[in-house]
Amino acid sequence: MAGDLLDSQGRGEAQWGLPAIHPEGRKFGIAALGISLLFAFFAWETLAWPMAFLSLGILAFFRDPERVVPQDENAIVSPADGRIVQIAEVAPPRELIADDGTGSACLTDEPVVRVSIFMSVTDVHINRTPIAGMVQRLVYVPGQFLNAELDKASDENERQHILIQRSDGLCVGFTQIAGLIARRIVPFVKPGDTLGVGQRVGLIRFGSRVDVYLPKNTGSKVVLGQKVVAGETIIAELGTQPLLEGVSQ
């Protein structure tokens, strides 16, 4: 299915298949499975079975399913699977707006809408770019490991900022934030890389959060509590500021 073109009129072919396991997780899953087999060899069943289930859990955590990415220049897609936990108007992080010597002031300190997505341990943890463009910045910041659902996690937790700039100058910044259990942010890209919308950019191990800073005069198309899918859910459309309401039921 990878690379296939599908549309809203039913053209294309949708197929189901088991998701791939990202290489970053295979070593952990195989190690846990090996320990389980070692315990089984010595007839330590009380230890072998929990390790076997742990290996399956690890492989499931690092699953990397294919996604059908909307091809719309006005669409900003979700960079993460998870639940919308905050929507607020704030200034972008200084790491995304500070002068880096390039002479390109992609983002300013003017407040914009920030959409925060919390990923639990059951969500897919492969993150994707919300727009197509070039990786202008990738800035790692060491920090704490507070609950990623807290507002102050954006400023105090270990995090990695990514700034994507389109050929027309439009920029979208987003931040991968480590949480209580997460202990490593793994990038797949580097500054200067050119990406397509929805392309994989990295992962965060074992529960975390991603903040997206929407362009000026652009509002959220998702509501608090909504579940979103990385690379598929459209979280905003450029230049629109819709008021949407949701009912929990």
Report on this model:
The chain is α+β, with helices and mostly antiparallel strands and 249 residues long. It folds into two domains: 20-64; 75-237, Distorted Sandwich (Glucose Permease (Domain IIA)). The protein is built from four helices and 15 strands. The strands form four sheets. An eight-stranded antiparallel β-sheet has the order 11-7-8-9-13-5-4-14. α1 (23-41) packs antiparallel against α2. The model has no long low-confidence stretch (mean pLDDT 86).
How would the blueprint of this fold be written?
Layout: E1 20-21, H1 23-41, H2 45-61, E2 63-64, E3 75-77, E4 82-90, H3 94-97, E5 112-119, E6 126-128, E7 133-141, H4 153-156, E8 159-165, E9 171-178, E10 185-187, E11 194-195, E12 200-204, E13 208-213, E14 227-228, E15 234-237
Antiparallel strand pairs: 1-2, 3-15, 4-5, 4-14, 5-13, 6-12, 7-8, 7-11, 8-9, 9-13, 10-12
Overall residue-averaged pLDDT value:
86
List the total number of helices. 4
Inertia-based shape: globular
Ends: how far apart?
34 Å
Give the C-alpha Rg. Answer: 19 Å
Question: Structural class of the secondary structure composition?
Answer: alpha+beta
Estimated helix fraction: 10-25%
CATH fold node name of the largest domain: Glucose Permease (Domain IIA)
Task: Let me know the largest β-sheet.
Answer: 8 strands, antiparallel
Low-confidence stretches: none
- The strand count comes to 15
CATH architecture of the largest domain: Distorted Sandwich
Proportion of β residues? Answer: 25-35%
Strand order in space, largest sheet: 11-7-8-9-13-5-4-14
Any idea of the CATH class of the largest domain? Answer: Mainly Beta
How many domains is the backbone divided into?
2
Order of H and E elements: EHHEEEHEEEHEEEEEEEE
